[in-house]
Design goal:
The complex is a heterodimer of chains A (291) and B (419).
Chain A lengths: L1 H38 L2 E4 L3 E4 L3 H5 L4 H34 L4 H13 L2 H11 L7 H8 L14 H26 L3 H9 L4 H12 L1 H15 L4 H7 L10 H11 L3 H26 L3
Antiparallel strand pairs in A: 1-2
Helix pairs in contact in A: 1-13, 3-7, 3-10, 4-7, 5-11, 7-10, 7-11, 10-13, 12-13
Chain B lengths: L1 H20 L1 E8 L4 H15 L3 E8 L4 H10 L6 E5 L3 H6 L6 H4 L1 H7 L5 H4 L3 E2 L2 E2 L1 E14 H7 L18 H10 L8 E3 L12 H7 L4 E2 L4 E2 L4 H16 L12 H6 L3 E7 L3 H7 L5 E4 L17 E8 L6 H11 L2 H11 L2 E2 L13 H6 L13 H16 L5 H17 L1
Parallel strand pairs in B: 1-2, 1-3, 7-10
Antiparallel strand pairs in B: 3-12, 4-5, 6-10, 6-11, 6-12, 6-13, 8-9
Classes of the chains: A mainly alpha (291), B alpha+beta (419).
């Protein structure tokens, strides 16, 4: 009884400090999600108003070939981008971790793309993706004997091209997180392993990877959440084309909400996306935590 | 003392009444480049003429247009007057968010009709009501590189209705000429065109030339869903894959640049690009021609070209409709239109608009006015664009045959229109 009193007394002390964030969370996060959920049972749009249709949107979304294509594209994009950026960033982080000089300068440099707005970056990358022999990327691949490609207009290449752009844009953050993870591993473990005769691969496999597990989990979960919301690269580089080859779910949600006057349908897709991300995140946690 | 006090109160009352009488009209317009410089000049003259009206003007970029207007209108805080192109405003009119000008100002609207070309005036009415007043228009015409034609010893495409070559300038002739002017090994192309665009401006002329519109608004169905639509897609696919006269297999992200750099003999180019060509590519010897005639001779002579126009519209929620109407009339009068269009390099949608007399390339655009079908006015047109462009790209990429692509687009559009 006494302890209960103490706890409630403490609650009275910390609750006012929590209140501003709680208000922010309720107004700008919880309520919009609830409102979206309510909208997902309606049809209509911003201009003409909405009306209740029950579960009709949830039924028709699975018959919508464009939505299914967008879902496939988003999954394909996520499957490509997360392992690639993870391997690349980990490799880079390990290299930077070995550096004794200029480490901070290199960290700042790799973080730079994240500080730029996506718009100028997309303009630069659009120029890099120029088709024909004059395209810088085509020049590079030409050096290894690959013929010029129309990167953003070829259905087979458009998603990998977006992946390339997003990896370049995001690898700085991933690398810094890995560097943070590497910093937490005691050097003595590596020294002991070296004395025991473990090679580079052995140390990596038996020390680095297991001790970076929380970092892998964090990046994998956040990677899925962020990349399932792929939007700005599509908006600026491809506008969903060619055909529907680079439609992502969020791009299709945006088109429906603001261009097609289908706010309710867009909300339905948003809720489907939310559920998908929740399921994937739960699955990832179970797998990576070994449950 | 009391007399003085009463006088002061009267003065204050009169001052407050005068201040209260001055109404503010909000005006939004996406910028055509020189808007921030030229619009204040036009609006200052308006405020001097109508001292009891203050205009609160916002010039904004085109990017994010849909979000900006959809949110403003749905929140009940729309601009009183706004500039909307023909493919944008029917969505707002269909939702009852725009004022019906013919009901509010029937006499003035009727009196204005004679000031505007019929092609644009008819695009101001939607579902039997008038919602807009024409302001400006742009069109696309076939530009050609004179030097390439002369070097090949070929006749220049027709730049006048009286040109003896005009009748023979058909799809077949165009393909033949383009083939003669193509030399892929030297990166020279007969025709620079692309389906890799978000807007259908370069695609729809093929529907028109094949003999069909995009939508049949009366019957609320996809007009292109039929043999004409297939013929249009087939012709494009043939130009790309059979005759091989188009660079980057019809998916070049910047096909105009190919033409500007002298690597293509012909290209569809917008009227507002003429100043760009003159300033940035002064050595390019260009001419402007009519489109070749397709098989759809009964539909705009089989030479339909893309043109669209922009309108001044008033919000239904506008609290000062009289003042807003004064502003619309001012913005669409001869002086304002001429002043604005001279500054930004666009064409005024008035019969008395005079294009730059020193620019011969503009002539064909005006002679082509009878060949401009214009967008069908439909509230779901933007979504139709999206569907048709996606399927056109599938056809161009050979992911689908022209028949399959037209069928997919037609079914999707019809399903959309039936919703």
């Amino acid at each position: 009884m006494r302890s209960h009193k103490t706890n409630s007394g403490k609650a009275r002390e910390w609750f006012p400090f929590l209140l501003p964030f709680l208000c922010f969370y309720v107004v700008f996060m919880a309520l919009p999600v609830l409102w979206s959920f309510s909208l997902s049972f309606q049809q209509g749009g911003l201009l003409g108003g909405t009306f209740y249709v029950g579960f009709q949107n949830y039924r028709s979304v699975w018959d919508d070939q464009v939505f299914l294509t967008a879902l496939r594209n988003t999954a394909y994009y996520t499957v490509l981008v997360i392992p690639t950026i993870m391997v690349f960033s980990l490799f880079l982080a390990m290299m930077i971790n070995q550096m004794h000089r200029l480490q901070n300068f290199v960290k700042a440099c790799i973080f730079l793309p994240l500080l730029s707005s996506a718009v100028p970056l997309a303009i630069v990358w659009k120029a890099l993706f120029t088709p024909g022999r004059e395209g810088p990327l085509n020049y590079l691949v030409g050096l290894i004997g690959i013929s010029p490609q129309n990167w953003l207009a070829n259905p087979a290449l458009v998603i990998p091209s977006i992946v390339l752009f997003e990896i370049w844009r995001g690898f700085g953050f991933w690398t810094l997180v890995f560097l943070g993870g590497l910093d937490t591993i005691p050097k003595t473990l590596y020294e002991a392993a070296e004395i025991d005769g473990a090679g580079i691969w052995g140390r990596f496999r038996n020390i680095t990877v297991p001790l970076l597990k929380p970092t892998f989990l964090f990046l994998a979960v956040m990677g899925v959440i962020w990349n399932f919301q792929l939007f700005d690269a599509v908006y600026m580089l491809t506008y969903g084309g060619p055909g529907y080859s680079s439609y992502s779910i969020v791009w299709y949600v945006y088109r429906n909400a603001f261009h097609f006057e289908k706010l309710g349908y867009a909300a339905t897709m948003g809720i489907v996306l939310l559920v998908l991300i929740l399921l994937l995140t739960g699955f990832q946690r179970r797998v990576m935590e070994g449950k | 003392m009391i007399f003085l006090l009463v006088c002061c109160l009267c003065v204050i009352f009169l001052f407050l009444s005068a201040a209260h009488a001055r109404v503010t009209v909000t005006l939004w317009k996406a910028s055509h480049g020189a808007d921030p410089e030229i619009m204040p000049v036009i609006l200052q003259a308006f405020e001097e003429e109508y001292p009891d009206i203050k205009v609160d003007f916002l010039s904004h970029p085109w990017e994010g247009w849909d979000e900006r207007y959809a949110v403003a209108f749905s929140a009940g805080e729309p601009p009183d007057v706004s500039y909307m192109p023909d493919e944008f405003w029917p969505r707002f009119a269909g939702a009852g968010l725009l004022a019906r000008l013919d009901e509010l100002f029937p006499e003035e609207v009727a009196a204005m009709e004679a000031d505007f070309p019929e092609a644009f005036w008819r695009l101001t009415s939607f579902e039997a009501n008038q919602y807009g007043v024409p302001f400006l228009w742009v069109a696309i015409a076939l530009f050609y590189n004179e030097a390439i034609f002369e070097e090949a010893g070929l006749t220049l495409p027709p730049s006048s209705l009286d040109d003896p070559y005009f009748d023979d300038w058909t799809w077949e002739e165009f393909a033949d000429v383009a083939q003669k002017l193509t030399e892929p090994t030297q990166d020279q192309w007969g025709y620079s065109w692309s389906a890799a665009f978000r807007d259908p401006n370069y695609l729809y002329p093929y529907f028109y030339q094949a003999g069909t519109d995009v939508l049949d608004v009366e019957e609320n169905r996809a007009a292109f869903y039929g043999p004409e639509g297939i013929a249009a897609f087939q012709y494009i696919v043939d130009l790309i894959h059979t005759y091989e006269v188009i660079p980057a297999a019809g998916m070049h992200p910047n096909f105009h640049q190919v033409f500007y750099e002298g690597k293509a003999a012909m290209a569809p180019v917008e009227s507002y690009s003429v100043p760009t060509i003159r300033n940035q590519f002064p050595d390019l010897e260009v001419g402007v021609a009519f489109n070749p005639q397709g098989p759809g001779v009964d539909f705009f002579g089989g030479r339909g070209s893309f043109g669209n126009s922009g309108y001044w519209v008033m919000a239904e929620d506008c609290p000062h409709k009289e003042a807003a109407w004064q502003l619309i009339q001012w913005l669409s009068n001869q002086e304002s239109v001429q002043l604005f269009c001279d500054a930004v390099g666009l064409f005024g949608a008035r019969v008395d608009f005079v294009p730059d007399p020193d620019e011969p390339l503009y002539e064909v655009f005006f002679e082509s006015q009878p060949f401009l079908p214009g967008y069908p006015l439909h509230s779901q047109l933007r979504q139709v664009h999206s569907i048709v462009m996606a399927e056109a790209q599938n056809a161009v990429l050979l992911s689908k045959t022209p028949e399959e692509a037209i069928e997919a687009a037609g079914e999707a559009v019809n399903a959309l229109l039936q919703e």
